[in-house]
UniProtKB/TrEMBL annotation, chain B:
The lineage of its organism: Bacteria, Pseudomonadati, Pseudomonadota, Alphaproteobacteria, Hyphomicrobiales. This is Branched-chain amino acid ABC transporter permease. CDD domains: TM_PBP1_LivM_like (cd06581). Pfam families: BPD_transp_2. Residues 324-343 have a biased composition (Basic residues). It is a multi-pass membrane protein. It is found in: Cell membrane. The chain crosses the membrane at residues 9-30, 36-55, 84-103, 110-127, 169-197, 218-235, 255-280, 292-312.
Length: 251, 343
């Protein structure tokens, strides 16, 4: 295992690391989807997880968020061990989570979706303010009263992002935020991600190299359940093994 | 948006008050009282099913528990005020425990239906076996399949000799129904209610927001149980006898049918569904040409096929879209989209 930038194993002081996994393993029957992964994320870092289909990115992501309980290994968030916690308790640490398939309340309005998220840790009045603010930042003003179930896919993705940031998280986990979006929507998403990154660290699971290039993130490459390498976009792109397992397949 | 719904609720209450005074011109107080009690019972399931997304096949359990809790405590205490409160508290606590067991166990949909159904059966069977003298709580004998008569019925609080019956029982029940309706409306407009609806829409998203969906569902379920218990206590006071039949499967199924026919996702729908079908059952009971159950089944099938959302939501959207035909598209889209959460 090689680390491209920053944290060599155990090198950095703990306080700077906001998320860490030690020997994280997830097995489904005979399949080891995540195999002994040790991973570190620093405060205000922007990190992308890439890898071919079935590399274990999303399973790893789900172990971090508590949606899946890892078979073995530990997860630490801000020095608190959260291994096996339910998502609601992970979320309460101040962590915003966006799942792969847009997870929104389809029968409710855009405003209501965002308000409910803002309300949890703020009062009614502050939630109203936060909601208005988030709707403006994400350019959702025109559709604020519309029912989310009737919106286009890209709009729903944006609503879910609104739900995530309305809770004012300091760590944001996004699973394929740009999936199925048009070019213009992706551009807007990149701007939003940079804005989120001003106050929060991010982990983004993503396929789209173009997207990753434009957010200029540190990259962790997954292959067959393990970390293949970590590094900058350029370092990753020029690595022969990465091209073999991932980029090569895209032609 | 929330304020619009509360304004609608004010109109509903106004219409309810008019109905309260008009209905006795058509029907006798005795029958009307029962229809109002049915309405309250339907409201309890309409809340937890239509807004909380919890399909409870055993709403009759809380209804029966309320009735028995009232009967037993009224027989012992001899005044109705405290027993009324007990009749709300017992099903509330029982529903909370049952709900917590199911929701913390992550049971959903079908499994939840099966458990609540089985609990209904257990109560039905058990209450039928309580004929012996060993089943005595204080001075009250449970009476098994014969039921339990002879307890203090509803009286003016503090004066056990001032019975509330016939027309005054009808008005008391109707006012209670209206008050409960307003309280439930306020609950749904509160953050608790809004989060409850969000849980119905997407439980895992609500948990990712950091809310404890299991606890909140348990509380909502308990509130539904408490309202059903209140309906049971009023029934006990109306019928002057409680029998194990309150816990029967037929009773449970009827509550569900009221909600389906009236319209889920509204509060008025289940209440009207209960009153209409309750009256129909009463009217059909007076003739022998056609089997009662057959007609009930037929109505359910027709409604499910023709108006799958129920009568009241269908009427509302038909009325709503015609009166707003001239508005700009965006506004109509937003309004109609509120869909299930209306009314």
């Amino acid at each position: 295992m090689r680390f491209g930038a920053g944290g060599g194993a155990g090198g950095a002081p703990m306080a700077d690391v906001v998320l860490e996994t030690r020997g994280l393993t997830m097995r489904f029957g005979g399949v080891t989807a995540v195999d002994n992964v040790s991973f570190k994320l620093r405060r205000n870092e922007l990190r992308c997880l890439i890898g071919p289909n079935g590399a274990g990115k999303t399973t790893f992501f789900r172990c971090l968020t508590g949606i899946l309980k890892p078979t073995s290994g530990e997860v630490f968030i801000d020095d608190v061990e959260t291994t096996g916690w339910d998502p609601q308790f992970v979320a309460r640490l101040g962590i915003g989570i966006k799942t792969q398939v847009p997870s929104v309340m389809d029968g409710l309005s855009v405003r209501e979706n965002i308000w409910l998220s803002a309300y949890r840790q703020a009062g009614t009045k502050e939630a109203d303010r936060t909601t208005a603010d988030v709707i403006e930042r994400l350019g959702l003003g025109d559709i604020a009263r519309a029912t989310v179930g009737r919106l286009a896919h890209g709009e729903r993705q944006r609503v879910e992002l609104g739900i995530v940031i309305a809770a004012r998280p300091w760590l944001v986990l996004l699973d394929e935020p740009a999936a199925g979006m048009t070019g213009e929507e992706v551009e807007r998403m990149v701007a939003i991600i940079h804005e989120i990154n001003r106050d929060a660290a991010l982990i983004i699971v993503e396929h789209d190299m173009q997207f990753i290039r434009s957010i200029a993130a540190q990259i962790t490459v997954f292959s067959q359940g393990a970390i293949l390498m970590e590094g900058t976009v350029d370092a990753v792109m020029s690595d022969a093994r990465v091209r073999d397992v991932y980029l090569g397949k895209r032609g | 948006m929330e304020s619009t719904k509360l304004r609608d609720a004010a109109w509903v209450v106004l219409a309810g008050i008019v109905l309260m005074f008009v209905a006795p011109l058509v029907l006798n107080y005795y029958t009307l009282t029962l229809l109002v009690i049915y309405g309250l019972l339907a409201l309890s399931l309409g809340l937890i099913w239509g807004f909380g997304g919890i399909l409870c096949f055993g709403q009759a359990v809380f209804y029966g528990l309320g009735a028995y809790a009232y009967a037993v405590s009224a027989a012992n205490i001899g005044e109705s005020t405290m027993p009324m409160l007990i009749a709300i508290a017992v099903p509330f606590v029982f529903a909370f425990l049952l709900g917590a067991m199911m929701f913390y166990g992550r049971l959903t949909d079908v499994y939840l239906g099966v458990i609540t159904l089985v609990v209904t059966l257990i109560f039905f069977r058990f209450m039928n076996t309580t004929a012996g003298p060993e089943y005595q709580i204080g001075t009250a004998r449970l009476g098994g399949y014969n039921g339990m008569p002879g307890y203090q019925t509803l009286n003016v609080p503090g004066d056990p000799s001032a019975y509330i019956y016939d027309s005054s029982l009808y008005y008391v029940c109707f006012v209670i129904l209206l008050v409960v309706y307003v309280l439930v409306r306020l609950l749904l407009a509160s953050p608790f209610g809004r989060i409850a609806v969000a849980i119905r829409e997407n439980e895992s998203r609500v948990e990712l927001m950091g809310y404890d969906a299991r606890f909140r569902k348990s509380v909502l379920f308990a509130i539904g149980g408490g309202i059903a218990g209140l309906a049971g206590a009023l029934y006990a006071s109306w019928a002057e006898i409680v029998t194990p039949g309150l816990f029967s499967l037929g009773q449970s199924a009827e509550i569900i049918i009221w909600c389906i026919v009236g319209g889920l996702g509204t509060l008025v729908g289940p209440v009207l569904g209960a009153a209409a079908l309750g009256y129909l059952k009463f009217a059909l009971g007076q003739q022998t040409a056609v089997d009662n159950v057959l007609i009930m089944g037929l109505i359910l099938v027709v409604v499910v096929l023709v108006l799958p959302r129920g009568v009241v939501p269908s009427l509302m959207s038909a009325f709503g879209s015609s009166s707003r035909r001239n508005r700009p598209n965006a506004v109509r889209r937003g309004r109609r989209g509120r869909g299930r959460a209306d009314g």
